[in-house]
UniProtKB/TrEMBL annotation:
One Gene Ontology molecular-function label: RNA-directed DNA polymerase activity
Signal peptide: none
Gene3D superfamilies: 3.10.20.370, 3.30.70.270
InterPro entries named among the record's database cross-references: DNA/RNA_pol_sf (IPR043502), Retrovirus_Pol_polyprotein (IPR050951), Rev_trsase/Diguanyl_cyclase (IPR043128), RT_RNaseH (IPR041373)
Domain Reverse transcriptase RNase H-like, residue spans: 228-330
Species of the source: Petrolisthes manimaculis
UniProt-recorded name of the protein: Reverse transcriptase RNase H-like domain-containing protein
This protein's UniProt keywords: Endonuclease, Hydrolase, Nuclease, Nucleotidyltransferase, RNA-directed DNA polymerase, Transferase
């Protein structure tokens, strides 16, 4: 338990309901507030004996905070309270809280659209698909525009670093559609480094990577658009050359990919131990898709047990400790799966080019 010698004297009384900062079931380094539990006895100025599911345990005041119950309020009660307050004191109206499916962004958009007009020639109404920023969106799915794909598949072999950067920039824009993009493009990205000549020297690995990128994009799978009503599933894996992650959602018993991500390991990262590479894959994958995972409980699927290593290791270096602290921001349910089931992330992390 965390102890602070500068902790102030607490004012909890016997019978008060408190929340306790306890480790999660999956990871002892991930803490969350659990409760409420009643205070049974006070021991000194900063220690309290708490009834935790019928078992008396002693906790320091740093691990406790007072629990305030919040009575459930129905929509009718909120409306009635607003109307009644408006009749008595119009200047001090209570602000009703937004419900689960409402957001401040939606409310703001509703206010902004009031009184706006639209030009018919620039509107598309009643269509099944729309083109947006190089993508086609429709029916809850997302795929690249065919004319953009054709530019990539018909592109000639670049002869200079500038031409190669242009090709990598366009193909990289659609990297979320291409599994193991980073490892496939590794021979090409190595040729645009500062210490490489401006006139490219093509060999078999570079030529294979060039054609593989074209083929992968021309036959890329269609991605589904995320929905906030379903839980997110993150699969991660690591190899000696790269990291891989797949973001999925399960709809009607079928898991659909939302996006692919991959990263080439740096030289110093390639020297990490296997378990540290697996930890790095989890941390990197969560940060990559943090806009979907932060604040939402999600399922983490991996074919290793790197977080068990964080729990049982007697000594953790500073790097792994930083990863542990970062993971405390997220609420995840860890599910260990077989390596044969983790095909997507495993394939993303491994290079099929020399």
């Amino acid at each position: 338990m965390y102890y602070d010698r500068k902790a102030k004297k607490s004012k909890l009384q016997i019978g008060d309901q408190v929340l306790i900062l306890l480790p999660t079931n999956n990871n002892k380094l991930l803490l969350q507030w659990k409760g409420p539990f009643p205070v049974v006895e006070r021991k000194g100025n900063c220690d309290y004996r708490i009834d935790v599911n019928g078992e008396l345990k002693l906790f320091h005041s740093n691990m406790l905070k007072r629990y305030y119950s919040r009575p459930a309020v129905s929509c009718a009660d909120v409306t009635a309270a607003v109307v009644e307050e408006q009749e008595e004191e119009p200047e001090q109206l209570p602000l009703p809280s937004l419900y689960r499916k409402e957001t401040w962004k939606q409310v703001k958009i509703g206010e902004t659209l009031t009184g706006l007009t639209a030009k018919p020639s620039k509107c598309q109404l009643g269509v099944r698909t729309v083109e947006y920023l190089g993508h086609i969106v429709g029916g809850g799915e997302l795929w690249p525009m065919q004319d953009k794909v054709k530019k990539i598949t018909d592109a000639p072999r670049p002869l200079t670093k500038k031409a190669l950067r242009s090709f990598l920039g366009l193909s990289g824009y659609y990297r979320k559609f291409i599994p193991h993009y980073a490892t496939i493009a590794s021979p090409l990205t190595d040729m645009v480094k500062k210490n490489k000549p401006n006139q490219l020297q093509w060999e078999e690995p570079q030529q294979r990577a060039f054609h593989t990128l074209k083929h992968s994009l021309s036959s890329s799978p269609v991605l589904r658009l995320p929905t906030m009503d379903e839980d997110f599933i993150l699969r991660t894996d690591a190899s000696n050359v790269g990291l891989g992650a797949v973001l999925l959602q399960e709809v009607d018993g079928v898991k659909y990919p939302l996006a692919y991500a991959s990263k080439k390991l740096l030289l110093r990262e390639q020297r990490y131990s296997v378990i540290e590479k697996e930890c790095l894959a989890i941390v990197w994958g969560i940060q990559k898709f943090s806009q979907y995972l932060y604040g939402n409980p999600f399922i983490l699927e991996t074919d290793h047990k790197p977080l068990n290593y964080l729990n049982t290791a007697k000594q953790l270096n500073a790097r792994v400790m930083r990863w542990s602290l970062l993971l405390q921001q997220y609420v995840m349910n860890i599910k260990v799966i077989k390596g044969s089931e983790n095909v997507g992330a495993d394939f993303l992390s491994r290079s099929n080019v020399d």
